[in-house]
Structure formats: structure tokens, C-alpha cells
Design brief:
Blueprint lengths: L1 E6 L3 H10 L3 E7 L2 H7 L5 E4 L15 H9 L4 E5 L4 H9 L4 E4 L4 H12 L7 H12 L8 H11 L4 H8 L3 H15 L8 H8 L14
Parallel strand pairs: 1-2, 1-3, 3-4, 4-5
Helix pairs in contact: 4-6, 7-9, 7-10
Length: 216
């Protein structure tokens, strides 16, 4: 029997999964990831919710930052989430997640997916397969780099290239090149969208799932 850990901010999820999935031994459950990382408890799998911030833990780390930390600690990670934005889920896989399972899936299907991930498989929803293939082909599976995120955040908030050039200490030509790269990476899926809509779709806004910027 595989041993698994749960990271989910909802008590009902932490308490119910061990009862609903008898073929998996859930050895511990945590409301946020840093508590798990502090204990370094051995396990075959971490079942991770992406959204961990709530009123009780407003500063909890979540999303891409947590996936990278868990992978660096040697865990296999299966994201178990209600998140539906395809670029966000693709970014989770790019960050090292070994599987993505929707909370809308039935208990039996979710349990089967967890077992597959623990056994060494990569579980990708069919809705993501085409997107991941295109991103890999275009060498854009990481979506956007930190500098591009900063540019996108500024453009989404109405800042001009000249204003951003002064704060980022880069030339306007360099910033326009970054913007062209962003557009190429997502051109198959977005046409004539605003920077704000693009930031939301990619999940890279401050506090969002793919936001890995340090606190400022």
C-alpha cells in the first residue's frame, strides 16, 4: 500500500480522503505545505491543493512555489484542484508536478490517478495534452520567465514601455522583445486580448497560482 500526504486548506478534504480511498494509506494531512516540509515525513506521494490561502492562513505559500519546494525535497506531487485554467495547470506540470487531477473527478477515478502517480507515471488530463504538446514544441513550456512576468504585470496595470524601462533598468527595445516572446508563446490560444486578461489566464498576477515573485 502506498503512503501519501495531503496538503489542503479544507478540513473536510483532509479528513475525508483517508475514508474514501482505502487502497492508499494517508499518513498525515496538513493545511499548508511548509508544515509538511518542516517535518520531512517520508511518503510515496503528496496530494496537493493549489489554493491554500484563506482567512485562517492568509500568508500560506501556494501554487508553483509549493510544487517546486516539494519536488526539491524529493516528493512525487499530484495536484488535486478545482483550478480549470489550462495555462495555469500546464505551468504546474512545467514546475515539476507529476500529475494533475480535478476535484470534479469521481473518487474512484481520483484514487486510480493517485496510485498511478505514486507508481511513477505522469498523469495529464486530456484537456491539457494538446496545450502541453504545443508549448513543448515551441520551447515555451515554462510559459514566461520572471522578467516577462514583471513586464506583463506592468502592462496589465497600464504602465508604458518607457515607465517600465526606468523601473526595470532595461531598454524599451528589450521590453518590446520580451512582449513579442510572450505573444508568440500564447498566440495559438489568444487573439487581441488585453494584458490584464492575459495575466489572469496565465495565473501570474501577484498572489495568483503561478506568482513566484518574492514579497515586496
Amino acid at each position: 500500500m502506498i503512503r501519501a500526504l495531503i496538503v489542503d486548506d479544507m478540513p473536510v478534504m483532509r479528513e475525508s480522503l483517508p475514508l474514501l480511498m482505502p487502497s492508499i494509506e494517508f499518513v498525515a494531512a496538513y493545511p499548508e505545505a511548509d508544515a509538511l516540509l518542516g517535518e520531512s515525513r517520508p511518503a510515496d506521494l503528496v496530494v496537493l491543493d493549489l489554493h491554500l490561502v484563506n482567512d485562517a492562513q492568509p500568508t500560506a505559500r501556494q501554487g508553483i512555489s509549493v510544487i517546486r519546494s516539494l519536488k526539491a525535497a524529493g516528493y512525487r506531487v499530484c495536484v488535486y484542484t478545482q483550478e480549470e485554467r489550462r495555462f495555469v495547470l500546464a505551468a504546474c506540470l512545467a514546475a515539476g508536478a507529476d500529475g494533475v487531477v480535478s476535484k470534479a473527478a469521481g473518487v474512484v477515478a481520483a484514487e486510480r490517478s493517485f496510485l498511478r502517480v505514486a507508481a511513477g507515471e505522469v498523469v495529464i488530463p486530456m484537456s491539457l495534452v494538446g496545450l502541453v504538446e504545443v508549448l513543448v514544441r515551441r520551447r515555451s513550456v515554462t510559459l514566461v520567465c520572471p522578467r516577462q512576468r514583471e513586464l506583463l504585470a506592468g502592462r496589465a496595470r497600464g504602465l508604458t514601455y518607457a515607465e517600465l524601462a526606468r523601473t526595470m533598468y532595461l531598454s524599451e527595445a528589450t521590453l518590446r522583445g520580451y512582449w513579442a516572446d510572450i505573444c508568440i508563446a500564447v498566440s495559438v490560444f489568444f487573439r487581441d486580448v488585453s494584458p490584464g486578461d492575459l495575466e489572469r489566464a496565465l495565473g501570474v498576477g501577484p498572489g495568483d497560482i503561478v506568482d513566484v515573485w518574492p514579497a515586496r
